[in-house]
Amino acid sequence: MTREEVYERLNKVFREVLDDETIELHDETVADDVEGWDSFEHINIVVAVEEEFGFKIPMGKTVKMKNVGEMVDLIMESGH
Amino acid sequence: MTITSLSFFLFLIGAVTVYYIAPSKFQWVRLLLLSLIFYGLAAKPVTFLYVLISTGMAWCVTNGMESGRKKKDGAKNLQTWKFIMVLTIVIDVFLWFFLKGREFITSSLWGLNQLFPSIRVIELPPVAVAMGMGYYTLQIISYTIDCYWENAKPQRNFLKLLLFCSFFPQMITGPISRYDQLSSLYEEHRIKYVNLAHGTQRILWGMFKKIVVAERCGIIVNAVWADFTLYGGIYTWIALLLYPLQLYSDFSGCCDIVIGVAELFDIKLVENFKNPFFSQTSQEFWQRWHITLGTWAKDYVLYPVLKSTRLQKLNKKLKNRFGKKAAKFITTAIGMAVLWLVLGIWHGAFRHIIGVSLWYWIILMLEDFLKPRTEKLNAKFGFKTDSFGWKFFRAVRTYLTYSLGIVFFRAKDVAQGFSFLREVGRTFTPSRWNPWILFDDSILKLGISYKDINVIVISVLALIAVAAFREKHGYARNWIDTQPVLFRRTLYVALLLAVVLLGAYGPGYSASAFIYGQF
């Protein structure tokens, strides 16, 4: 799967969880850039990503992820 | 020895001298020895045993975990180490609770006794508690979990880990640092003018907040609280509204001193406050107040609870039945309840759980519930939500919300907290209505003079000005750095004189403990 394909699916996940069709993610996107991405939605997003890509994001990564780029790296590393 | 006493500053001068003589890669050993000396001077030396036990357990388990990971059957090994890790955390919490939580047990029984008189109150005998136990315990737990999560690399040198847990400035009121934030502890440091200047600046600013503002506000607040039914009316409002200011200038003042002291050693500690009284909502307030405790609780309590299989299953069920929004609201409510319960227990008092935690749990859930509705209303009526007036109104509302909840932090028990609030509410009854006390000399009954009132007003204006500058342009110190030498020196001397001449060193003053030093 290419990085572009990951982004396409990831955008869909974010739009679905946060109910916002305008979301466009980039490597540098952080929680403050996206309306509604708070601590509670962060977990909902992580769980939705796990379901979409079929792998578990460890708790340590869930806590430490700094931006969307790191999330995409994780997805790519998982090989799904 | 408290950190506002003369003996502390003499110790500090000696410590900085020893630290910078012949910089080397073993400077951290000097820092550890200085921390041990400070502990010996500021607390009962024998209680350091608790720090040693907790650090020792963390050192064993994290290094064991690391070597277990490398072995052939790493996964199986890791399971065993996970069990041992949980056990050490339980022991840490038990140790803390056994020693610090004694007041919690007594106060809980006392609170329950008021509701159900058949429950008896048992007074537990006092025990010697380790200094900064509430803070270093959280640091050790975060270090252990970070190593398990592979967010930190285990420290192989026990003494280096001991320094992380006992670095002396933060033993008083935190901040609660993460292991990766303090890696500079182990580096070589050379003396730099900028560190000494910034450190001294920060210490002076902290002293100003503590001794000029907090101590003075404390005189008024304590006088009213000593007999609030006698004072009544507007007096109770003065105490109600002044206590958050006292608590803020006391706690953040202490953090300023701590951060400034660490800066003298070229160690950057994390910030614990970010202009909390500028917050527009209570949620924002808690992101700006005692930040390191909040982020600790978020990472190690809230996230694991929200991501737990059980809560996720419940979330799915609720989503199918009531829809996405309701599911989010309910799971958020559960996560927040656990978070605030933990924060309440950490503060070690039953009244804190009933008053502050329960109050804020309700307020934050209410904010969450009302947010989309108020946004719609604002749009409908065309309120200018970007205007100064609107922002000011919201900041005042947030301050008032905090004032009401924090009453239970000041009260000696739940009943006293409610009695105080009842008095506040009775202000508007004819027998209690006394606004003229603001205009005659009645207010002097509280043990202060007009000079004190003027000092408080001018100091608060100074605090607001510095905070407003930080909101807009970042730290004032960066601006000060760009000013001519004469201006900078005048500013330092003025601040020093303000602390020396305007400090509330009256009969009630002892280089006293900080409110948050008790944890």
Question: Can you describe this structure?
Answer:
The complex is a heterodimer of chains A (80) and B (519). By secondary structure, chain A is an all-alpha fold. Chain A has a single domain (3-78), classed as Non-ribosomal Peptide Synthetase Peptidyl Carrier Protein, Chain A (Orthogonal Bundle), CATH 1.10.1200.10. Chain A has helices at 3-18, 39-53, 59-64, 68-78. Chain A is globular, with a radius of gyration of 11 Å. Chain A starts with a helix and ends with a helix. In chain A, 26% of the residues are buried. The mean pLDDT of chain A is 91. Chain B has 519 residues and is mainly α. Chain B has helices at residues 6-20, 27-42, 48-70, 74-100, 102-115, 133-148, 158-166, 193-226, 228-231, 234-264, 282-288, 291-307, 309-322, 324-346, 350-381, 388-410, 414-425, 450-473, 476-481, 485-502. In chain B, α1 runs antiparallel to α2 (27-42). Chain B is globular, with a radius of gyration of 25 Å. The two termini of chain B are 17 Å apart. Chains A and B meet through α2 and α3 of A and α12 and α14 of B.
